[in-house]
User: What shape does this take?
Amino acid sequence: MKILVTGGAGFLGQQLIRAMLGHASLDVGGKPMRIDRIVCFDQAVGAITDPRVTNVVGDIADAATVARLVDRDTALVAHLAAVVSGTAEADFDLGMRVNLDGTRALLERCRALGQQPLVLFSSSIAVFGGSLPPVVTDATTPTPQGSYGTQKLIGELLVQDYTRKGFIDGRSLRVPTAVVRPGRPNGAASGFASNIIRDPLAGLPTVLPVDPATEMWVASPRAIVAMFLHAIALPGADWGWHRSLNLPGLTASMAEELAALREAAGERVAALVSHQPDADIMRLVKTWAARFDAARARALGFTADRDFPSIVRAYIDDNPAAIKLG
Ligand SMILES: NC(=O)c1ccc[n+]([C@@H]2O[C@H](COP(=O)([O-])OP(=O)(O)OC[C@H]3O[C@@H](n4cnc5c(N)ncnc54)[C@H](O)[C@@H]3O)[C@@H](O)[C@H]2O)c1
Assistant: This one.
């Protein structure tokens, strides 16, 4: 089987490809399939060197490029390419082109081949926003408050309809904010939730731009990648007709994040975080959903991290070169 990972050179894309490479075969829609080749498609070159991985650089919104990417051997497409929240809000045209036109170009190519590949679409909890109930449930109507969330929601609807028509076997996951994001921040407005752990652990000062009581719905990259693989593995019948899913996560306040940092690395490291409120970021964050009851996902076997301290410990274990304590 050939697997295509769009946005494969990005943060979650690289982690997903690494996790796939740990298996000789992968359960795809309930059937084990041998991994022959993984195409890592992105605007940037992926860092993974493995004989089974081919890096292809290009633009997801270019239909001719996408036509070359997806062929009759492509049984699985993990569609992660996107411009993220802050960037899509700042550049409306770019967000529409990559997040909407790119998704449609990919789905159209899958449809044209007539092979019904399994398509995993990484959507976001940013499809929810505004005046929400205290706990978002599977029955809560998505009401995005930004261009990124709107583009993700339209992508979900397309995945849903292309599945209904039998063009693809689609699954859309509303991914919590991934914490801790290693390396450099991307254009996500939620970046501070990772910065306040990653930067002090690297010995660097950083800023918390929101009230410490601010809560977010988060999951570790490890948990998210495991949930991606679980979403791919489940038979279509288990998903039923409804192909969008709120993923399990944890509600973490920034104060709880800082307490976990203090517990893992001590007061001196935690003191590298300074509180400098930013009214624009606070206004935006207030529109985000921070509490979910992901009952349907849990019933389907998706699981989240145990607690926030275990997220910090996993980051330290997985990124030894990024930790500078002492
Ligand atoms: N990380 C999170 O907290 C989070 C939360 C919810 C949803 N998601 C979604 O998960 C996916 C992966 O997120 P991530 O954190 O790895 O983001 P990322 O920014 O690290 O990766 C996205 C990748 O898409 C690529 N890309 C952008 N425009 C492209 C184009 N025109 N053509 C080809 N590739 C292009 C980028 O180069 C980048 O490598 C995204 O779809 C994102 O919206 C992420």
Notes: The radius of gyration is 19 Å. Residues 264 and 313 are 7 Å apart (CA to CA). Residues 92-113 form the longest helix (22 residues).
